[in-house]
Amino acid sequence: MALPKRIIKETERLMNEPVPGISAIPHEENLRYFDVEIHGPSQSPYQDGIFKLELFLPDDYPMTPPKIRFLTKIFHPNVDKLGRICLDVLKNNWSPALQIRTILLSIQALLGAPNPDDPLAPDVAKTWKEDEQAAIATATEWTKKYATPTNQTDQ
Amino acid sequence: MDSEDDFMSAVSSEDDILPDDSDNDDMSGAEDFDFDDEPDPDLGMEKSISHKRVAYDISFKVYQPGDIQKQQDDLINEVNMILDISKEEAAILLRYFRWNKERLIEDYMDRSRQVLEAAGLAQTTVGPPKLEVIPGFVCDICCEEGDGLQSFSIKCGHRYCVDCYRHYLSQKIKEEGEAARIQCPSDGCNLIIDARSLDLLVTPTLRDRYHQLLNRTYVEDKETLKWCPAPDCQNAIECGVKKKDLDKVVPTVSCLCSHRFCFGCILNDHQPAPCDLVKRWLKKCADDSETANWISANTKECPKCNSTIEKNGGCNHMTCRKCKHEFCWMCMGLWSEHGTSWYSCNRFEERSGTEARDAQAKSRVSLERYLHYYNRYANHDQSARLDRDIYHKTERKMVQLQKESGMSWIEVQYLNSASQALQTCRQTLMWTYAFAFYLARNNQTEIFEDNQKDLEMAVEALSEMFEKPVTDLADPQLKVEIMDKTTYCNKRRIILLDDTAQNLADGRWTFNVELSGVLGGNNGGPSNKR
């Protein structure tokens, strides 16, 4: 199946004008599969961390949202143990006018603003609500442990 | 104002045309008399029963797909005339207000801007929707461009190529089952795509599906309407019984497809038990809690290590396999205290066994009580199923009877009525047992149980007659007996239901559980979320 023009254009733009703090590189053998890296936003417990994600564009894309999940372990109320992400634009608020870059930006924003009231990982969200200090400490620790370039192999 | 008056008169005239279940004494009276003149005693009996309005009877109307469409069209036309907006916009507004026309008009008059915005409509008016070719246009979704690329947008002006629009709509309709609130594909644009634009874009199959989904939302949005749950039935039923009244009334309705169900909870007819009790009963029957009950009634626990023990035979001298504790199965006391007098076990007052025995006895009584009602409930359920099998044989039986005894078609119809009476009465009896399980004992209960007994005896007698071989059925004596019994069963059922419904409405029953009028917690509130 030929790659739709939309995907080609989006990929070109991602390569030529990358979003600061975000990179998305398609696999050579499957141009619908992207390796993604997102830098943790500053002034957040994820600061200085580089988080790896995988992104896949299903056949129906852009009518259906891309499938995306964290590969790097992360302590975040809206990301579960398997790295799945709870984000409205990835579900029912998806619009075909949205793009890979806009979605990745939304995920970066989610790192900067965790939403424990709408949790995917209930235990994480609980810590977040009951003892925010401790939660932030754990998130920082995990970022150091799993998302810092020198220790990447640990994940 | 003119238009409104017009509509009002239109409504009332429509009411007159539709068949009304109340009795018209004027025109059709002559016909009624003809009927009553007929010598058949059964018909006469049924007539006199239905003339008197019984307590369990509730009023309802059945609507067929055409009626449902017409109701929507009428409302849309009316709003279209009063508010001077297009029919498509009127439809979207009505759906937003869950078809509450009065509230729509009031709110629109007060603040039309906000109402339009909230409902997903634009302020501006432009011509009818059309496909356009715009030079230099690039579709944001597929990134295609080129001369002659057809594009489309609704009033918000977010323009996409026609292929993407079609693809988008088919995704929404086919995959997501969305219809009433399909928004512009643009991110964050809340404008709703109207039916006319949709008709322009999609294939006829998809359009049919879209309208089907819209019809579905109409019935689901209105509290007074419900779909008939029978397989393949497309009718909807209108009934005024509110959710909060369900502790006072059991709203059984029957569709044109002959399916009888409860308007409150959509389950099969469960008179006389109110919805809440039915829900509890079904849950109880499905629960594993009865397993636990069985265990506590049929087993005992080792007084020392609490292992569960079922006595499978032998004498009362028990030795726990786990802890080797020795005790008496009868009194649960220490075996060593028994000495040689173990068989008579006269140690009833002994403190060591009293408590264990009390707990055991209590749970046994409650289990027995449950099983008493459950067995009878399940028995009627099963018998009704068996009677249903017989019902299928009845037709053959009737044909055979016509051949063998030379009776005419009309003369063997009594078997059909008998079979139907059996079905409905068994259904009722079944639920009387679930109902009785939750009843606290008082004088009302005695009357109820007498009624129940009368009906049950009659039903069993009829069931027995009904199973007789065809040769016996030809006997005119038996025919009369069956007809009498059928009438009697129907009458007893009505008396029972009337009595229970009356008491329910007056709040005279005492239940051994708290009866809640509101069921299930998540009752769809007035505001539409999606």
Structure commentary:
Chain A is α+β, with helices and mostly antiparallel strands. Chain A is 32% helix and 15% strand. Chain A is globular, with a radius of gyration of 16 Å. Chain B has 530 residues and is mostly helical. Chain B contains 18 helices and 12 strands. In chain B, a hairpin with an 8-residue loop joins β5 (225-227) and β6. In chain B, α15 packs parallel to α18 (476-505). The radius of gyration of chain B is 33 Å and the shape is extended. Residues 1-51 and 517-530 of chain B have low confidence and may be disordered. Classes of the chains: A alpha+beta (155), B mainly alpha (530). Chain A binds chain B through residues 4-6, 8-10, 60, 62-64, 89, 95-98, 102, and chain B through 140-144, 158, 160, 164, 167-168, 171, 175, 185-188. Chain A: Residues 2-148 form the UBC core domain. Chain A: One of its GO terms (molecular function) is ubiquitin conjugating enzyme activity. Chain A: This is E2 ubiquitin-conjugating enzyme.
Please summarize the sheet with the most strands of chain A.
4 strands, antiparallel
**Total strand segments of chain A:** 4
The percentage of residues in β strands of chain A lies in: 5-15%
Strand order of the largest sheet of chain A: 1-2-3-4
End-to-end CA span of chain A: 35 Å
Helix content of chain A: 25-40%
SS summary, helix count of chain A:
4
Number of helices of chain B: 18
The Cα radius of gyration of chain A reads 16 Å
SS strand fraction of chain B: 5-15%
Helix residue percentage of chain B: 40-55%
Most extensive interface between two protein chains, with residue counts: A-B, 16 and 16 residues
Order of helices and strands of chain A: HEEEEHHH
Biggest sheet architecture of chain B:
3 strands, antiparallel
CATH fold-level topology of the domain at 366-524 in chain B: Four Helix Bundle (Hemerythrin (Met), subunit A)
Overall outline of chain A: globular
